[in-house]
Design goal:
By secondary structure, the protein is mainly α. It has helices spanning 2-22, 27-41, 65-73, 77-87, 93-114, 118-129, 131-163, 168-178, 183-195, 200-210, 214-229, 233-257, 259-282, 289-292, 294-319. Helix content is 78%, strand content 0%. The relative contact order is 0.05.
Amino acid sequence: MILLVLGFSTILIVTFSLVALATGPTQLDKTVQQRLAAIKAGDMQSDGSFEGLQLLKISRTSQFGWLEAILEKYGISQKLQTRIAQSASSTTVSNLVLLSLALAAAGFFVSFLVAPMLPLELGAAFILSCIPYIFISWKRSKRIQAFNAALPGAVDMMGRALRAGHSMAAAIEMVSQDAVEPAAFEFREVFKQQNFGLPLRDALLQMLDRVPSQDLRVLVTAILVQRDTGGNLVEILDRTVFIIRERLRIHGEIRIQTAQGRMTGWILSALPILMLLLTNAVNPGYSSVLMTDPGGRKMIYAAVVLIVLGSVIIHRIVNGIEV
């Protein structure tokens, strides 16, 4: 059986290696890259200094273009690409999917060696295949939280620049230079897009697509309404930053009040698994009847379903409060 697993793993590795070599950059691709490098080098002045804006936007590409074409056909690629962009990750859609498939295969075969039961093998494959997507979602959530924390300071800075007599474009440039990341990065993108001729409305809406934050939505709505109807933009920004800070304060209080519920959910979800591992460590073979007897297997399946269901319910209750 071990030889079968090793043989299958070898075939899998060789197949992916051949696919990677077959879909690698051709001589034409290398020529195109050299010409693009020459275009970028054309901005170099005679004295060696670099001037001007970079007109070429660097995009992440993958050697597995055929896989991205398949995902694009079924409407999956765009959703994953949006998630990756919102998390500011350097990976690509095809790399993410291939990593998920590799982890699924590893989980399936490890479970097959440890406990050869089809439901457990499928469950292990599914759980491990979700790890890359969970990691991307975690990075996305952390980036949005960091952006929300830096947004009030950025809006304050914008208001002070406008109060001093600067234009909106100059205020956005100041924010892009002096604000805290990742807010500075997003406003820097808005400033670059404006320099290339994109209207402010479109640039702000694209930033809202990159950062799906409710606080940013409040800011963008306030700016766009003021540009359409008129009014004192500085006063509007002052009121907006007050609303954003109040939302952050209330959200922090809710997190404090629900901390016990979140901890309870983690403990109740992990306790059955930890107790099973501890029992096997103290008395090996004590719970083997759960693996060998058909009734014991049904109990394991029911326990897994109930644990997952309970975790989802607790998560919905604790995190279902909107500010």
